[in-house]
Each structure stands twice: as structure tokens, then as C-alpha cells.
Amino acid sequence: MESYITLSFLNDFIFCPRSIYFHQLYGGFAEAVYKQTPQYKGTAAHETIDEQTYSTSAHILQGMEVFSEQYNICGKIDIFDIKTGRLTERKRAIKTIYDGYVFQVYAQCFALREMGYAVSEIVIHDLVHNKNYPILLPEQDEKMFTKFQQLIEDIDSFDMETTAFTPEKAKCTTCIYNQLCDASLC
Q: What is the CATH number of the domain that holds 61?
């Protein structure tokens, strides 16, 4: 059976490729074993999406499973307005628009398009500050689209035992998996 890349892995891999391995290792454990306050706050921010109570309008897709055959990525979208073609990814609080955020919405965009939907606009919404950050469509930003494609290749070819890894103290000290990772002892 072929394994797929989940949407969350795009951002996680950029943060630390090894975190994906540890995330999967913890998959069967209770969340309290590995989640910390920021992860719980993020989960709470998505509650209306996960429960599909954000909107009752039929033209608003919320929390829908999507899959891109082209990029072998699966996951859930937050909100897609069929009428306007607007794809919205919600984040609890945004300090910086990280590349991983952009790559997650690109993957969602590609999946929706493969499913026959017309995506014409992408925004990332900061719930705490009630602010939208417009994101250029993949075809409008060649540099980011190329980086997205490279990330997919990097994830597909990553091997924890053979790929060189250089720990970054700033990341390792905030990583929820640092107690499992021998490389985080920088």
C-alpha cells in the first residue's frame, strides 16, 4: 500500500523532517502524552470546522477530506466557498506566514481543483486578530510553486537513517518530540 503525504506534514517537515517520524510513532497514544498547550489551542480553533458547524450554507464546504493524486497528498480543508472560489485556511494566531502554511493551502488548492472545484482565491485567516492574509495562487507565484514541488520531492526521498540532519537549537528546544530525538541534544 502506498503511503500519502498528509497536509500537516508539509509544515512539519519544514520545521523538522524527523518530527514526522515521531508524530507517526505517537499515533496510537493519547494526545496528552505528546501535545502541549499550543497544539491544544490549535485544535480548539478548528473545532467549528471539524464539527462542521461553521456555516449551514450549502455552498460552504467545511472540514472536507481532499486528495491530490498529482502530489499524493491528503487531508482536510478548512473552508471553501463554492460560489466565490475562495479557499480559507484558519490559524489560531499568526505571527509570520511561514512557507509551510502556503504549501498547505497549495496542496488543498490542487486537491480541490482535481476534484472539479474552481479555486480562484486563497486566504489564511488569523482567528485571534480576525485578519486575512491573501496568498497568491500557485500559478501566480513561480518561486513558491517551485519550492512546493521541491518540498514534495524532499519528503518523498527522506530517510531518517541515511539523510543528514543538523539540529537547530531554537527548534529542538521547542519541539514536542525533543525527548525522543537523540539529535535534539544540541
A: 3.90.320.10
Q: What is the pLDDT along the chain (186 residues), one digit of tens a residue?
A: 468 899 989 988 898 888 777 777 766 554 554 455 555 455 555 565 566 656 668 899 999 999 999 999 999 999 999 999 999 999 989 999 999 999 999 999 999 999 999 999 999 999 999 999 999 999 999 999 999 999 999 999 888 777 777 777 777 777 777 777 766 555
C-alpha cell at 132: 486575512
Amino acid identity at 11? N
Letter string b/e over residues 133-157, b meaning 16 or more CB atoms within 10 A of that residue's CB: eebebbeeeeebbeebeebbeebee
Q: Can you tell me the distance from the alpha carbon of 108 to that of 121, in angstroms, rounded to the nearest whole number?
A: 12
Number of structural domains (the chain) is 1
Contacts of residue 125, defined as CB under 8 A and 6 or more positions apart, other chains included, come to 88, 89, 90, 91, 131, 132, 133
Distance CA 74, CA 141 (A): 22
Alpha helices in 96-141 (DSSP H): 99-114
Its pTM surpasses 0.85: no
Give the structural domain span for 106: 5-184
Strand partners, 61: 80
Name the amino acid, one letter, at 38: P
